[in-house]
Amino acid sequence: MPTKKFVIIGDKLLSSETISAAIAEHLADDWKITALTFGPDDLGELDSELGRMEAGGADAVCAPDEVLEEVRDAQVVLTHMCPINTAVFDAAPQLELVGVLRGGTENVLVDVASARGIPVLNTVGRTSEAVSDYTVGMMLSETRNIARSHHAVMSGRWEKDFSNSGSIPEFKDLTIGIIGFGEIGRLVQQKLSGFHCTVLVYDPFVGPSQVPEHVRLVSDLDSLLATADVVTIHARHEIGAPPILTADKLALLKPTSYLINSARAGLIDMESLTEALADRRIAGAALDVFEIEPIPPQSPLLELPNVTLSSHIAFDTAGFYTKSPVLWWEGLNNAVSTMSTRSLVNDQAVDLEKLRMLNLFDDSSRQTIRL
């Protein structure tokens, strides 16, 4: 007879049924899964809800009443986009673990969890392959005018003249600068290796032994910005933090350089970037993330001839969704079996032994979900 409660909160993008099926296969018999759904059916509206939390934190969006009711006697909550905010924590006195089926944890009040000694486990690597693929595609699209040529042909024009005509590069001649050398940054570098370009990396948390021999680790951001022909950014952005690429930093870019952002809009001073593009102080930019999504029709970016813009879809692959509960469970397994903190967001504030004591697994061996 189940005596402990595991609440799963899915949504239109990642259903609670998909999550539950993956988790239930290896969950111990004394756990009961309660599956709930958060948010609207419209994907644009759901994305807007996430955008509000990315900008204002988990308290920017209300959790459904059903969630507040069901977490009252829950020990574990696993969410995709639903906020785990002040109201949820206050309603869940027995809560011992919060899981997030995303890399980012903007929809969870991690500080509150830490203050209460509750571990928060995110999903490391779930977007890495998809976003790194897309990032390289954005580089090609912007530098080689792929999207602009497609739009022209579809509009009945056989366009040959573009904003960078006369200086269109070949990748083997380029220096690519990667800001942030985590999961995604490393994969971007690996995928660029086939183009035989020069790669620079800036990451203050990475040492020389952590980058391949043919990749040059630079010690300051300014030198990367002043040297690179293409700059792609793959760093975390904390809510309320200033951008990494300020107006002063953007001014260091060469007039022939390109900027790629598939991470977070807040990493870049978007007003200064728009001005730099309009004034042709940089050659172009490819952007998949924006301060307001959907991008407003009056945005000056929409008037520029030297941008490639997409609707925040860098993560969107079939495998991205189905792999999420798999990767989360494996991260939990690693935390329990090896005391790994790789998936533990608040490892400085909690005791990993608490995860062991939950006895989530259906036997004493390490359990791994397989698709």
Automatic annotation (TrEMBL):
Gene3D superfamilies tied to this protein: NAD(P)-binding Rossmann-like Domain
Keyword NAD part of the UniProt annotation: yes
Keyword NAD: yes
A molecular function GO annotation: oxidoreductase activity, acting on the CH-OH group of donors, NAD or NADP as acceptor
UniProt entry keywords in alphabetical sequence: NAD, Oxidoreductase
Pfam families: 2-Hacid_dh_C
Record-annotated D-isomer specific 2-hydroxyacid dehydrogenase NAD-binding domain positions: 136-314
Signal peptide: none
Top-level taxon of the source organism: Bacteria
Annotated family: Belongs to the D-isomer specific 2-hydroxyacid dehydrogenase family.
Name of the protein in its database record: D-3-phosphoglycerate dehydrogenase
Species classification: Bacteria, Bacillati, Actinomycetota, Actinomycetes, Micrococcales
